[in-house]
Design a protein that fits this description.
The chain has 414 residues and is α/β, with parallel strands linked by helices. 34% of the residues lie in helices and 25% in strands.
Length: 414
Amino acid sequence: MLERAAHSLRERVRQQIDLGGSVSDQSLMSIIERTVFDWCKEQAQPLTSSEQVALVRRLFHSFRGMDVLQPLMDDPTVTEIMINAHDEIFIEQHGRMSRCPVSFESRQRLEDIIQTIVAGVNRVVNESTPIVDARLPDGSRVHVVLPPIALKGPTLTIRKFPAKPLLMADLIAVGALNERTASMLERLVAAKYNLFISGGTGSGKTTFLNALSQAIPPDERLITIEDSAELQITRIANLVSLETRNANTEGRGEIPIRELIRASLRMRPSRIIVGEVRGGEALDMLQAMNTGHEGSLSTGHANGARDMISRLETMVLAAAELPLPVIRQQIASALDIIVHLSRLRDGSRKVVEISEVLDVREGEVQLSPLYRFEEEGEQQGKVTGGLVWTGNRLQQNDKLAAAGMDVDKEEWAS
């Protein structure tokens, strides 16, 4: 009922305000409150006071916020909002997906919201450029697909991020990994091991990358490179954040990740973080790791550590006509550790594998699993288990020694 009332009252409010933008928030709120009050007197069955408050907020958000999405954006338990069409909205909450009983008043209203979002980050989305990535002021990631690519109508996906970035202690608290493996990974980051985080969509790669980055010594110079800026690194004062740019309506001005990686090498970085590699930029990232930029971090989509190696090979092959043995040698020389994340059937996100990348033997990049997730069962719908040491010890101890760390202190060090 409130949705229908909001849709009908929106036009009444619109007629009373100056759409040129001269109405303050306070004046707009007064107009909305008066309109709702007058409308309620016309109804045979009056609204309760709480329903009136909800209707006022709903109308206010339709003019100043993100319309029906604003309450979802304000709800910290909602982690993802998926709009398949103006009247078909799904959310992810506590790791579970469900349909949300709200809708935009029209397809045009959804398109207006989309245009407002992309204009805020100087991006363009239209029929000639129907796919775009953007972000909201709070850092939430936005992906837009317009018709004719999207058959149902404009499609909008929002991946929300917490206002306060999660630290490793937070990930331990939710069971993503245990204290021992967290301490190990933090030591490896501090000692300038090159780490690569793999996982499927929604497995928490960016969140984990952000938590790991907190172990970088604060006196280093860090360059971050992303499609849409999402990382929230607060400990590093000497930080440069770079973001790709799409081509303009004339097809010019595109600045891809590959170009940003090359530019970053001339900015004297201590380390480079590439938010995610999907294509030819994998070659530039590997070359950067192989040319003195130790301690670099990145993420990529894969089903496991071994699969991530194969995917990197494919990405590099697509970028350069290099012999496969040369590519494999590049990967083995550049990467030290692969951390694989997975989203389990109960919706939880966990580290399920930590592997050391060794040299090339018999034509294949060798991996040495250090920890693997072992499931113990299920209690009250939650998967139980944890990371278990495989018995393999870290073979490449030179960076730990160079960082002055006791390589014999931990059971994972040989």
